[in-house]
Write a structure and sequence with these properties.
CATH architecture of one domain: 2-Layer Sandwich
Strand content: 25-35%
CATH class of one domain: Alpha Beta
Distance between the termini: 77 Å
Helix content: 10-25%
Shape: elongated
Number of strands: 47
């Protein structure tokens, strides 16, 4: 089996014979799923990882850079080792993804298989790929980088997005079991108190706040509440002083179930399980993802009970499959009934390792050795039980190296001196097939930090603990750096009571109840202080060398001591990056990419801090943590996207387009015909006879008043106050920086009345812009948006005049009605505004009429034009026609940096005006060479470029711009387009290359229009 042990797998692997009390499985129900094409079985309640591990799979992924084999590590979704593709969705955490019948699971980042990945050869040449090598290698000459870039990009990355994702075809579950859908439901909740974290401290915080009368929402990312009580398997010892002495002597899983029921039974409490809080925003707004639901929770008070997570220590080959974190081992055994191996070694530097050792022994795993870097432990009675079981114990020792190729076969351990250095000559080899690491906790303070609260490094606890909390923020449990159940219970009660105090809802409480709560808060606060003091005193007596990063003379030459398993950052990478000057934790992060992978620092933050601290000689506190920003965990882009609530706009002719068989496209909020028959047929009609297109989507504004011309002169770059009645003029609007915002035509219908057209999606902006300036300048000008009240059709082609003469008495002769003129009159009995303009490059009229006549007007045009071979044409054909004329589309051929000079529209800027919006910026721009220019180009071969394709110099050495528009031109017989390129190429005949579909094809620059460059057909 792929990824499985090569031998004895049936004997070694599998499940416990009897389910544990905390097990999540229903062993009476079997499910089948597919893994890399092979049929696999699982129990209901299994995760993909637990089912695969029980079936003998040990290699779950290949690493990001070196393609080393990786196995389960945290079993909690906090590391990258089990990322897989599930039903086509990449980077799914197999250790938290529940098995569903028929699901298809594939491994990632390997070829041809997990067991035999040909790219693992990169591991052998790792010394040639130091930290930041892509910033230093293949840069000069530039041609070198172009040769290797595609190789590097091909080999890196995590997961591929498949073209069709089977599970994204409809809505997914809302209970948090899966997020693999393209549809997300957005919900809003409010609470008096929000508790984040469903461990024991979070539960007691929620219960106390609820008892005080507050509306409480409890958020937890697990399928059940209880935190580590669910899987630790320990028998609890709880002091009577906590008020919960009744739970003493009970199994932790039983207590977790009882506490969960107590929370769920409260009517004023809401439990969001399987829910991940991914960010804290202004005014206590919490972003939460729960399956395919995105919840925005706003609370008066926040209680953080997010706990702490384990992270691995750094030693040689610490990334080998079957190297686990201690709590990950406990989850696998107690929640999923999986026996992880035969012979185990537990490595620890705190008392949690003792609990892991006991769990392994209870599961029937032979414990080969218990290794602890401390000279004394905090639970000597548990250590005595381990020794009584004939287990070798090594106090004051640490692991130096894990041995094996694709699986652990043994570990090398060494004695540790008082400085935490390994003592040479004391090496011992311990055979094992399983390594459990309980080598440190890091507080889950990332969300807390997003509130603006601060954490500081506590040298005694060796963790970052909360300080300087915001007024509405409270903390409890392992998040405080203290790992003691009695203290966690009391901290939770204090946090819950404190959060509920002084809430508006508490005004309804009786005086007696308020007094009781006040006294309880005082009592528990006093007890917390006393217990924390005792805890810290105990830590002083058992505190020993931490040994997070194994160091000894020459250790930096060891090739693979992994600090970051996400990005394959090793210890010597951190040292080298620091030596090169990246000795600030923020710059170190960005240069080395440590903490920037899928785990976002959960596995590597503390080890990298320790290494940086050691190399720079600064303390951990001085080194500091990187800034935490939302999202705290990876979130699907669909979850962050706003709900699809945009209005849909239809023209008055929309349903006639559907009757004609048009393919409809989205254009902003509008629905428009993309094409009716074919681009070729529609193109031919416009160029040879006559075509009609619905342009009702254009924005239309009436500007009236004594100062209407003065307003337009100030807002547009052109001059309109001198425009004669009955004339039209093209205009461009710029912002203060001279950037093109919009364009359109301005027609003067009377001395005090102008009719403006804008681009399809910009009419609201232009209306607001005009109103703003009319108000600011105190002008007598009034703007009315008439878009919805008018329909519009463009009739264009050599036979356009003939068609319209059948329907109107307006004189359409070129002498009476020349290009860029207007008239008002009836067409087919409908009052219209006729504009003689030519966006598609042919004789044509843009006709605006009351929208209620839309269908009648459209049908009348088509009927009258039958004898001329009239054809309706769509947006795609219009794009080809306008491109042949090199007519610019703002937003397509310009971007947020384009000014009129770069967009080849310098003729629209009239500096003789006293002032206009953007004048100062444009005066400055005119005096300097533009950074780029809009040019036309014709491909030299049959290739058709795409919008957005990159443009290079003829010798391929330099990137010079990008394609803005490109289509095949029936007139030219080849692909034509426009591109924004370096200004030295703004000359006729310049040779360029367009990169399309991984090929660099030649093209020639042309400055004139591709069709009718003199404009004779427009003016015919």
């Amino acid at each position: 089996m792929e990824g499985a042990r090569p031998s004895n797998s049936e004997e070694r692997d599998g499940r416990s014979k009897e389910p544990s009390p905390s097990e999540l499985l229903d062993r009476s129900k079997m499910l089948n799923f597919e893994f890399n094409g092979r049929r696999m079985s699982a129990f209901e309640g299994d995760t993909v990882a637990s089912a695969l591990y029980a079936s003998g799979v040990r290699i779950f992924s290949r690493s990001f850079k070196y393609h080393r084999p990786r196995g389960l590590l945290c079993v909690s979704g906090r590391c990258p080792n089990c990322l897989m593709s599930v039903d086509g969705v990449p980077n799914v955490k197999a250790c938290t993804e529940r098995v569903r019948a028929g699901m298809k699971v594939k491994s990632q980042n390997c070829w041809p298989s997990l067991e035999h990945d040909i790219f693992s050869v990169i591991d052998k040449i790792g010394r040639f790929l130091p930290v930041g090598f892509y910033y230093k290698t293949f840069i000069n000459p530039p041609i070198e980088w172009s040769r290797v870039e595609w190789i590097i990009r091909r080999l890196t990355g995590l997961g591929d997005i498949e073209e069709e994702i089977a599970s994204a075809t409809g809505k997914g579950p809302k209970d948090g079991r899966s997020i693999h859908s393209s549809s997300f439901e957005h919900l809003n909740l409010q609470a008096d108190v929000a508790v984040i974290g469903g461990g024991p401290s979070g539960i007691f915080a929620a219960l106390e706040a609820g008892n005080a009368g507050a509306r409480v929402v409890l958020v937890d990312d697990q399928p059940a509440l209880g935190g580590h009580l669910r899987y630790s398997g320990e028998t609890l010892s709880i002091d009577v002083a906590t008020g919960e002495g009744a739970y003493s002597g009970l199994k932790s899983s039983a207590v977790a179930s009882t506490l969960e029921k107590a929370v769920r039974d409260r009517p004023n409490m809401t439990v969001l399980d399987n829910s991940t809080a991914f960010g804290i925003y202004e005014s206590n707004l919490i972003g939460i993802v729960r399956g395919n639901s995105v919840i925005r929770l706003r609370a008066e008070r926040l209680v953080f009970a997010t706990g702490a997570h384990e992270f691995p220590s750094v030693f040689q080959n610490n990334d080998l499959p079957e190297v686990f974190l201690g709590r990950g081992m406990q989850r696998l055994i107690n929640l999923y009934g999986v026996i992880p191996g035969k012979r185990a070694v537990v490595v620890s530097n705190n008392d949690s390792g003792l609990g892991v050792a006991r769990t392994l022994m209870d599961a029937g795993v032979k414990l080969e050795a218990y290794i602890d870097s401390r000279k004394a432990v905090g639970a000597p009675e548990t250590l005595a039980e381990i020794e009584d079981a004939k287990v070798q114990t090594f106090l004051g020792w640490a692991v130096k190296e894990a041995r094996g190729s694709k699986h652990v076969s043994s570990v090398v351990i060494c004695e540790v001196d008082n400085e935490g250095e390994l003592v040479h000559g004391t090496e011992r080899v311990v055979s094992c097939d399983l390594v459990s690491l309980s080598t440190g906790f890091e507080t889950e303070a990332w969300l807390l930090n997003q509130t603006g609260s601060r954490t500081i490094y506590d040298e005694l606890l060796r963790e970052f603990i909360p300080r300087e909390l915001k007024p509405t923020v409270y903390v409890c449990g392992d998040l405080t750096g203290i790992h003691d159940l009695n203290i966690a219970i009391m901290q939770g009660k204090v946090a819950g009571l404190s959060a509920a105090a002084n809430l508006p809802a508490m005004a309804r409480s009786t005086e007696l109840k308020v007094e009781y709560q006040r006294k309880s808060l005082e009592t528990y606060s006093r007890l917390v202080s006393q217990y924390e003091g005792k805890y810290r005193e105990g830590m002083k007596h058992t505190r020993g060398p931490e040994v997070l990063v194994v160091e000894y003379p020459g250790s930096d030459k060891m090739r693979k001591r992994f600090v970051c398993v996400c990005e394959d950052v090793v210890a010597k990478d951190i040292s080298l990056a620091t030596f090169e000057g990246f000795d600030d934790i923020e710059t170190l992060k960005r240069y080395s990419t440590v903490t920037m992978g899928p785990c976002q620092g959960k596995m590597c933050s503390m080890p990298s801090l320790h290494l940086c601290s050691r190399v720079t000689g600064r303390s951990i506190a001085q080194t500091g943590r990187t800034v935490s920003r939302p999202p705290f965990v990876p979130v699907a882009m669909g979850a962050l996207a706003g709900a699809e609530l945009h209005p849909v706009k239809l023209t008055g002719i929309h349903y006639k387009h559907i009757e004609l068989g048009a393919r409809i496209m989205d254009m902003g909020e509008w629905k428009r015909p993309h094409v009716y028959t074919s681009v070729e047929e529609e193109y031919k009609a416009v160029r040879e006879s006559v075509g009609v297109i619905d342009v009702s989507t254009l924005g239309r504004l009436d500007v009236k008043g004594r100062d209407a011309g003065k307003l337009l002169d100030f807002v547009y770059t052109h001059i309109f106050s001198t425009l004669k009645v009955g004339k039209s003029r093209y205009g461009v609007i710029c912002d203060d920086a001279g950037i093109v915002l919009d364009d359109g035509t301005v027609t003067r219908l009377s001395e005090t009345h102008y009719f403006i057209t804008t681009t399809t999606g910009n009419v609201e902006f232009v209306e607001e812009w005009l109103v703003w300036w009319a108000t600011a300048l105190r002008l007598d000008a009034y703007i009315t948006n008439v878009t919805a009240g008018l329909g519009a059709v463009n009739v264009a082609g050599p036979k356009a005049r003939d068609l319209l003469r059948k329907l109107t008495t307006v004189d359409l002769s070129s002498g009476a009605f020349p290009y860029m003129n207007s008239a008002e009159g009836e067409v087919a009995g409908v009052p219209c505004i006729l504009l003689r303009i030519g966006f598609v490059g042919e004789t044509g009229w843009e006709i605006h009429f009351p929208a209620e006549f839309g269908e009648y007007f459209w049908e009348t045009l088509l009927e009258a034009g039958k004898e001329f071979g009239v054809k309706p044409f769509g947006v795609e054909t219009q794009r080809v026609l306008r491109l042949e004329k090199k007519h610019v589309i703002v937003g397509q051929d310009t971007d947020a940096l384009s000014n009129p000079f770069e967009a080849d529209m310098a003729w629209t800027v009239k500096f003789e005006k006293e002032d206009f919006v953007g004048k100062a910026a444009l005066v400055a721009a005119e005096k300097k060479e533009p950074e780029r220019m809009l040019v036309g180009f014709v491909m030299k071969d049959s290739m058709v470029a795409h919008d957005g394709d990159q443009v290079f110099s003829q010798d391929r050495s330099r990137h010079i711009g990008f394609v803005t528009s490109s289509r095949f031109s029936p007139k030219v017989g080849r692909c034509v387009g426009m591109a924004l390129v370096s200004p030295e190429y703004y000359k006729e005949g310049s040779l360029i290359r367009v990169k399309s579909d991984d090929a660099l094809n030649g093209a020639e620059v042309t400055l004139a229009p591709f069709y009718d460059p003199e404009g004779k057909r427009l003016r015919a």
